[in-house]
Design goal:
Number of helices: 16
Shape: globular
Helix content: 25-40%
Oligomer: single chain
Strand content: 15-25%
Structural class: alpha/beta
Number of strands: 23
Amino acid sequence: MQTTERTTPATVKLLIGGKLIDSTTSQWRDIINPATQQVLARVPFATQAEVDAAIDAASEAFKTWRKTPIGARARVFLKYQQLIRDHLQELAALLTAEQGKTLADAEGDVFRGLEVVEHAAGIGNLQLGELANNVAGGVDTYTLLQPLGVCAGITPFNFPAMIPLWMFPMAIATGNTFVLKPSEQDPMVTMRLAELAMQAGVPAGVLNVVHGGADVVNRLCDHPAIKAVSFVGSTQVGTHVYNRATQNGKRAQCMMGAKNHAIVMPDANRQHTLNNLVGAAFGAAGQRCMALSAVILVGEAQSWLPELIERSKTLQLNAGTEAGADLGPVVSCAALERIEGLIAAGVAEGATLALDGRHPTVTGFERGNFIAPTIFSNVTPAMRIYREEIFGPVLCVLNAATLDEAIALINANPNGNGTAIFTRSGAAARHFQEEIDVGQVGINVPIPVPVPIFSFSGSRASKLGDLGPYGKQVVQFYTQTKTVTQRWFDEDEVGAVNTTITLK
């Protein structure tokens, strides 16, 4: 574990049964500001007894929370969304300190989660069943969408506000209780969001937070009281979580790795397209599962490469707190080392390093985990920089002679999180959206993450599980459908014996 010199730092608490408690663990990790290497706090790796206590608290709270009227649940989230708005700048500053994003990007992180909280406040219209009247003589059939019980969420470092807010608000709004395990790299903003949820009226035990690594993850996947597990993170861990949870009879949804492509057609709006490519590739230092990490220039659009490089050079690299910063540091020294190793591999495999962002000078933050925008051209699908998710500000540029060639290249990639096309041609856009085998499609939109009234719909190797987070799909994920068939008789009605299975 990474350590640096420090005075006694604060310790991150566990939230169990409505109380913020100190862990009794002997295993801790430093939370480090990636721009300065300052130790901000220490986070505990919870003991199994503490994880079990959180699950027990959630199990007990479920007995009453599941019976809470749907309007009362909605009002909690109406208050919660206002509290998040009131504390937006505080949350963004905390996020920037521990994760490294620019303040503007951190506010966006919180805001995209806030949109899901607003969606949860409309649960009265979302958790509706169906009714068919008089399906047979005097018989009605209807469905109830009832909560599952205790659910768990495991979230990554790159969106420590947005992704927890994707999970627990919708789970709780549908009548479940929740145990959340945020990333051990940057859990402080998540804990502040949990505190605000309690302030909004989430009852004790309905939301619990534990911290840790593989042992905690495995316990959430194994514990018999957990009914569903939601995960966002790497493909390796997500595959493990999905297999372990489902083998234990739980529902699981796992949003995992990606290699997102954009096709640039020669007729695209040049300035609009270049600006979008640069922002989507390098924003958040490329640490987004929906980051644009591969661009395919079609035909004459290949001549745009020099201008793409020059525009990328204009981005300002600095600590996220500094005015004018377009991207900040990557989250850790280990992340920086991995990114630099993949860049070196790209050079060794014969890609052209058209823009080298390694070892930049950031005055005043010389110890930060910085890497500037980096562009490879002449990339082929066989190269590691194309096959692996770099998760840094590195853009791979490929060439194609035709739209169909570009589509075939994308469809050959195992991942299916997001893709985009830039064109002025409606015919090309329609052909693209019909033929591309990727779950989320942008047309002149580089990062096609849907608003919460629609579902996040990554596909193929980027997703395990049938139902995605938020939108209509997540209501199905967090509820079980109970179908009721009923018939009522008048007091003096005498029915005949019926030995068949039909209703008459």
